[in-house]
Design goal:
Blueprint: H1 2-15, H2 19-27, H3 32-39, H4 43-52, E1 55-57, H5 64-79, E2 86-88, E3 112-114, H6 123-132, E4 138-140, H7 149-158, E5 164-166, H8 175-184, E6 190-192, E7 213-215, E8 220-221, H9 223-229, E9 237-239, E10 244-245, E11 263-265, H10 274-283, E12 289-291, H11 300-309, E13 315-317, H12 326-334, E14 341-343, H13 352-361, E15 366-368, H14 379-382
Parallel strand pairs: 1-2, 2-3, 3-4, 4-5, 5-6, 6-7, 7-9, 8-10, 9-11, 11-12, 12-13, 13-14, 14-15
Helix pairs in contact: 2-4, 3-4, 6-7, 7-8, 10-11, 11-12, 12-13
GO cellular component, one term: SCF ubiquitin ligase complex
Protein name: F-box/LRR-repeat protein 15-like leucin rich repeat domain-containing protein
Domain F-box/LRR-repeat protein 15-like leucin rich repeat: 87-204, 260-359
Amino acid sequence: MERETMDVSSENYISHLSDDCLLSIFNKLESELDRNAFGLTCRNWLKVRNIGRKSLTFHCSFNPTIDKEHARCIPNILARSPCLNRISLAGLAELPDSALNALRMSGSSLQSLSLYCCSGMTDDGLAQVAIGCPNLVVVELQSCFNITDAGLESLSKGCRALKSLNLGSCMGISDRGVSAIFSNCSNICTLIITGCRCLSGVGFRGCPITLRYLEAESCMLSPDGLLDVVSGGGLEYLNFHKLGSSTGRDGLGGLAFAKRLRILNLRMCRYLTDDSVTAIASGCPFLEEWNLAVCHGVHLPGWSAIRLYCNKLRVLHVNRCRNICDQSLIALGDGCPHLEVLHINGCAKITNNGLAFFTISRPHVNLRVDEVMSIGPSIENLFRMQ
């Protein structure tokens, strides 16, 4: 009897806890399992759990029927969670523009939004995002194939606090859309345009000095566009892996104007010449890692320029370069005083004698045979809210 009285007393006490008190308790729960259990206690506690929820992630099921059902439920879930600062709807290809109207419920608090592979979304949906979420800092639109310059213009005008933007494989955008981003978002520091084949690069003209990280893998930039890409003067990381040439000629010498560049990926840039390598080596004194794998246009003059100018270089990639030879390797061994790692394999003109001589002259350099596709900071970290 005494135990029953205590249980009833406890229930009455808990039922009189204010929402603020319950929210304080909820915020101290560390595991997602405990937070979900909290919300299942009763209707009022579920309301508090929804208010306290800061992050919402939908996982793609790769089943169109299930993903369509998720897309149908999203507006109701968003309407019940008004304080979200991070939402990921990645992989929901069936997501309609209308589902994004409910983002306004979390509009003032929302800072990070991933719409990765939401291929059903159009410029109208992105306009809803721009209107309802003015404080967005991180936006991922990779593989949103229906987004055009009009959508980017809406986003840039509504979300001027943007710092990180992923536009990878957005085939419908051009230099006009990129220019709008730079015109309206003065704090942009990370941009990914990988696979955007309609960009020449001239949209970067006048880009802010805050732009530090650029991924432009498999793009087709013009010589003038390459100069515009580095016009802001703030780039520290640049990925031009498999960059095409709209003219069939090398225009990469303009990267010499990226004075702050620390990490440069030119893997498979087959148009690259010794003249451009020399210009980059002499113009970018802070280079720490340089990927020149499968760059067949680099010969002894280029490798000698790296030896002469790259005094801060720590990591160099020369895998499968056809025109690096023993003499080139000896030249590198005579310079680059801070070199720590040399990725080297598949170089037909390098002999065992050349490798042995380099090892004797530079015993502290780690010779590695692995070929690295991606260098520098991970994209995941760059698009994660601090």
